[in-house]
User: Fold these one by one.
Assistant:
Number 1:
Amino acid sequence: MATRIPIVGGNWKMNTNRASAVALARAVSSAVGGLGGIEVVLFPPFPYLLEVGKAIEGSRLALGAQDVHCEPDGAFTGEVSASMLRDCGCAWTLIGHSERRHVIGEGDDLVNRKVLAALGAGLNVILCVGETRGQREAGQTDAVNQQQLTSGLHGVTREQMRRVVIAYEPVWAIGTGLTATPEDAQAAHAAIRGTLGRLFDSATAGGARIQYGGSMKPGNAAGLMRMPDIDGGLIGGASLNADDFGAIVQAAAHAG
Ligand code: PGA
């Protein structure tokens, strides 16, 4: 079986200010600095990327953006390209977060174009997928994830898949305090890995890292991370507190 290095992301969303972003980055850096065998990525708001990047320079933390546009440059008011993000020190970008799919209205085609643009420009991608509460209650969880993966990863090569992480984030668990049970999350992750096997091959699927996201906290992280197909977490609310985020990173580093 492939050995997968766990990866934990802190998605700060539209929170912090210039000073608190830098302070949080420094605090996270000292909280997780001594840990090995884990990747940690911070996703601050766009305006703070450069300063957070400076604050974590030389640390084991990587920098990521919360979104990216699909075109390389041009008349796209308000958008930010993959090469701009690279220029600002980003190694990673989130794509297809449920707040962008369901609040901003991004569709599968746009998500796919963003994935291809980001990978083409050398960024690593965390592609977010997940079902709504209604879809889960209708028994459509695996079908929704399969559809979002199939369209989101259309045209991605096996080689490029090494730079893609999947974040399974049930929409009903994000920011709500509700978390999938470890067993439910594991079942969804195993199905996602099965889909990756069909879309690519079993070696690619076995090597792909799949994060869980949705109200992950220090109290529930270890139980989730222990599951065989859960390879880390994408953390929203709890990533704004360095102690909580540090505890989750520790749980991921010690799982498995
Ligand atoms: P949450 O957010 O941890 O606040 O639920 C997770 C996410 O949206 O990535």
Number 2:
Amino acid sequence: MTKQYANIVVSDTQTPNGLPILKGSIGPDAVDVRTLLGRQNLLTYDPGFRSTASCESAITYIDGEAGQLLYRGYPIEELATRCGFSEVAHLLMYGELPASEQLSGFQCKINEYNLLHDQVLSFYHGFRRDAHPMAVMVGVVGALSAFYQDSQDYSRDEDQHKAAIRLVAKMPAIAAASYTYSIGRPIRHPDNNLDYASNFLQMMFGKPNEPYHVDPVLARAIEMIFILHADHEQNASTSTVRMAASSGANPFACVASGIATLWGPAHGGANEAVLTMLEDIGSPDRIPEIVRRAKDKNDPFRLMGFGHRVYRNYDPRAALIRDTTRQVLAHLGMENSPLMATALELERVALEDDYFIEKKLYPNVDFYSGILLRAMGFPSRMFTAVFAVARTVGWVSHWLELKQQAGHGIDRPRQLYTGPTLRHLDK
Ligand code: CMC
């Protein structure tokens, strides 16, 4: 066996047409098709990337059949129940859980960079107050590319890490300001006495004229949401960030492109769509009708919060969020939440239905997160913005990783052209 990249091994065996087979540490092997066009004048065709490994990555691993999710090798269940968000962010960004000094150094850096520049705050006033928070976030994060002129040499490790920390540090304030601006409330700045999750809550819900008391149960719940959404290997938004980064684009612009992709209802926008769906269902009696519609090929309706490109089993994040949702509802005296009752019954009915069984469609991370966020006081238009705050850690981890992969080059897929063949103007 010979070495290819840092971590890829080339297998001794090849495909029948002589293409190398590459091995990672776990998961399916991959056929290296890079020479196919040159050798056989053939392209591979894989719209939607169903069978394509677009890159080498050592950050997150999903076993979709087993319903397993690992961050840097650690099961999500262990991280979500035993670690804080800053520890998990450090793990994803730098590869290891931090020792206590590393953790305090990391948190100090977050605190150093979490304020928004005054001129950034002035951008908000250019948006309509009824703008979707994700629209505002795409604009504001993209605009950060115009700042930090003294540290924009992204070939340097130091500038790469500064940009990554800046993004993680500022994102809660950017998201919270997109909400407070929408309701006309003056923004609250970060409070460096608070941890990352509590700080987000105080910036979201605190009023400038009174102290905000952090509820530890709610702070732990938002921390859990952040951990569970922090990374998910080559999902659409992360792939977008990586593709933008492959051209050498500015990291703030790359992350803005990730936010734009996350917004779609097939991706991060699903948590908002789930809540709308549950509210439309109204009562558990209407569930059979909804499930019928979801199965009807002539109806575009899908059961939101169900199904996943990679999981063919229960999304482990959905199980953790369902448990946290139950705890938070009990803590807030909302045990009889009609939304939760509808969601639980919808899950039960769908999981007993042949259509969902055959297609291996299970609840995904978005199925319960909207109920949890709503109970905590988040308006539904902020759900995807919360997801974006969490996923920023994944985006910057992938951006940092790509910057270290010198051999990757620019992402430039080919196509199967089906347009007109050569023709000429009549005149
Ligand atoms: N309701 C009803 N049928 C479904 C659903 C659903 N939620 N999801 C998939 N199917 C069917 C689909 O119609 C197709 O049937 P057929 O084989 O007869 O054509 C089959 O299952 C396979 O679906 P697909 O669209 O080929 O699968 P995909 O991997 O392209 O899509 C998905 C994955 C997540 C976009 C899709 O399951 C979906 O639209 N789910 C609802 C939206 C949602 O919850 N999105 C959040 C995803 S998790 C969070 C994140 O990654 O951001």
Number 3:
Amino acid sequence: MRLLVTGGAGFIGSNFVHQTVRERPDTQVTVLDALTYAGDRASLDPVAEAIRLVHGDVADRELVDGLVGEADAVVHFAAESHNDNSLNDPSPFVRTNVEGTFSLLEAVRRHDVRYHHISTDEVYGDLELDDPAKFTPQTPYNPSSPYSATKAASDLLVRAWVRSFGVRATISNCSNNYGPFQHVEKFIPRQITNIIDGVRPKLYGTGANVRDWIHVSDHNDAVWTILERGRIGETYLIGADGEQSNKDVVALICELMGQGPDAYDLVSDRPGHDLRYAIDASKLRDELGWRPRFTTFRDGLVDTIEWYRANEAWWRPRKAATEARYAQLGR
Ligand code: NAD
Ligand code: DAU
């Protein structure tokens, strides 16, 4: 299979490319990535000889049309992905997440190429902390931030292109990922690298907000499962029953890194901060037989901490600028 992977130099995309090269050596991978602040060629160094990397923008319709025309399938990871940044400047989110998806959809329509769209559980808004409900494929869209609104818009474009033009697409909406190669702006890597630097972790608000954590390898296994066996036009939710409050996650990181359980600082909250996400992945489990491999969050976190300790050369160049951006936001 000739596979076009957008955003393959980012966190989830680079893990997907590594996994594909390792487990599916017959797949010819082309990565299209704009190498924004969030993308890094170095994340693809371990597989550089086995893939083609094209430095370009998913919203560049001519470039995208040419690359899609050479592919059998597209997996679209490329996005502006960080909520805090979207609150500061939404414009790149609209361009990349909405216009970029539009440009891919037009190309897959023209060339009749199979398309898988990577999305997020944040399109559903949030749940109350004490509500036993989880997100299902029937939950109405209700995004809170500019980031999640642009992801919701891109999902709706995909649904319309399936229905109106017969595009062969599937969509997945996944919960919070963790693992190697995640940018230090995100919650878990930020706290791990802060502790390595002798700085206390930073918890927004009271730390009561809940996220549903999944290891990035489990997310990417699910993406391959949907690409190969998912029903065209369907939406699959991906999650591994990993609900944890932010406070509990920080306490566990502190414990695993030899700090006291409350050796963190409470900082000002994110505006519009979603309270809780929780995924019901029964459709993916029951229809397609997918199961997560990293069954305990603790084991996955131990591996992740170890990875950041061993790969300081990868994250160090971005740490100071990231913390300077947070300092401007008072977080
Ligand atoms: P990331 O920010 O780490 O990586 C995004 C990648 O896209 C980077 O390599 C960046 O250079 C590239 N990119 C950005 N704009 C581009 C453009 N205009 N053209 C081409 N490439 C561009 O993001 P991530 O965390 O790996 O997320 C990947 C996808 O998964 C996104 O679509 C995100 O919405 C979705 N998602 C993420 C999570 C999570 O927990 N991180 C959970 C569910 C869904
Ligand atoms: O749910 C899927 C989404 O998960 C993806 O669509 C997004 O791309 C991804 O960034 C992530 O969004 P979140 O906003 O949940 O992730 P973030 O890592 O920014 O924050 C996780 C939680 O931790 C959130 O409740 C905010 C909080 N937080 C974050 C940072 C950076 C802190 O308490 N302290 C911090 O320093």
